[in-house]
Amino acid sequence: MSVLLAASAIVLSGAGLVAALAPPSCGGALRVAMAAALGLGTWSATYAAALLLFGPQGLAAKDLLLAIAGAALLIASRRRDVGMPPEADAVPHWLWALLALSCAVATILFVEHTLRFPDGGWDAWMVWNLRARFLARAGAGFRAAFSPDLLYLAHQDYPFLLPGLVAQGFLLRGAEAAWIPVSLAWLYGALAVALLVSSLGWLRGGSWGVLGGLSLAAMPCFPTFASNQQSDVPLAVYLLISMALIAGPRSRPALLLAGFSAGLGMWTKNEGALFAACLAAALAWRDRDLRAVGWFALGALPLATLLVGFKLGVAPPTDLAALSTPQGVLAHALSLRRWAELLLLTLRRIVYFQDFGLWSMAEVLLLLFWVRKQPATVPGTALFLACLAFGPIYVLQPHRLDWIYRTSADRIFIQLWPSAVLATLLHLARATDRARTTART
Amino acid sequence: MSIGRITAAIAILAAVGLGRGVYFHLISEPRHDVLHEPIDSRYAALRALLPPAGEVGYVSDLPVAVRLDQDAGSLGTRLYLHAQYALAPLVLRYDDARAPLVIANLADPGKLPQIARERGLSVVAEAGPGLAVLRPKALR
Prior knowledge:
The structure holds two protein chains of two kinds. Chain A is mainly α. Helix content of chain A is 77%, strand content 0%. Chain B starts with a helix and ends with a strand. Chain B is elongated and about 80 Å long. In chain B, strand 1 (54-59), helix 3 and strand 2 (90-94) form a beta-alpha-beta unit. The longest helix of chain B is centred in the first third of the chain and has 30 residues, at 3-32. Chain B has helices at residues 3-32, 40-49, 75-87, 112-119; strands at 54-59, 90-94, 102-105, 121-126, 131-136. Chains A and B meet through helix 4, helix 5, helix 8 and helix 20 of A and helix 1, helix 3 and strand 2 of B.
């Protein structure tokens, strides 16, 4: 593999996908951010497909093919009409300054946390970077990464978009440089903020974009999760792209791209499959347009195929299934104590100031007293369905509820938070538009 | 509802959030937590004594969580997971003292002779405090 070829594969595949499928009215910043995230994801997913199908010897050709395919998409799309971007509104300078300050502080905190925990968070060395090391070190014996002899805590069944990126970085560098997973972690964090700012700016104007960026960059736990070198922030990025495209002007190409991004989320973490299903269900429920669901599903199909192939052909069963018994599931389902415990844990988490500051409380109050009275939207419904689905997942799973909740709830929160900010600010922007229109008339 | 009020509310939430983050990372955490060593530094010498791939047995003086009712956050589990991370792509077979090569990863280095005796192992080489390569006595 060569660095230049790999860089070409990432840049051209991402730019090609965005040029061919993103709505023409998307602004430049949004296009660049989407292209970066989708290019990285595509590079990793094709690495996994080539590795699983042909072994390590198939990897050099895949970068060349990916670069050619991306270039072909770019050439084929060069005559697409570029629509007018929405009228730019004047964003107060102090608001931009506050966002810049938040991003700078978040980066300082990211650096501090990385210095304190050089191997990342617990799941980074237990799951994600462990997998990357297996893939980079084992050569033809890469299937050892999924050995059932590993402890179940290594979660051999997890898809490996992030480990695929880190492993390819190690192979390109010819050494396991610590800066590779750290840089990827920072990049995905920066992309999450950039995508929120640019997608809200595209959909509702620059001020809403800056407010969205602030809502993420100034979330206390965000720099920690970004620096943990885990898959939660990358998953948040792919879900956010999908949500933004669905919230924008609807077209077949945009739905395909939304589905593709949701598919990359599926290949990032198991929760990604749930989020993709919730998006499809929300599209069907709110828009009553099965063709839209079909285009979305078609976009996700390549990644869904990869995931199913991996799960059926390579990965051992997920611990949630492998360690469950029908009697245990039934007993958990009928346990009122377990449901009550989940409710209590959730209520306590909402007021968990250490991680969420006042953001989660503000969001819940807004949802309860204002958003629920607004017309339903596809992104909002998808998020509602996802949160609803986690109820039975938590209650029925085989582990001790307080332990699994404590170790996973905040990560799920950060996966969903950027999309929740997008959905909420879209509601608020619409309401202020209505108020302004009413005031004028 | 006006955008001015929403902006003010979000700016306040952001200020609180940033303040909390700065307090935790730059004031509280340095007081209460150390800068952690890279995991690899403990296992570098051991890695040099082992084959680059395949499977080896793993024994310890602390239990590792292999079932749901065991503490996944225990020190024994962390020692195993750290070793697996450092030694990949070797697969560490927990509690397998019959493998041709076995590694001992101990919280208490003084327990090495006892562990070796109890498991019928002989020490091939030590690779730092609490770390050793062993093999079953029957294979000598």
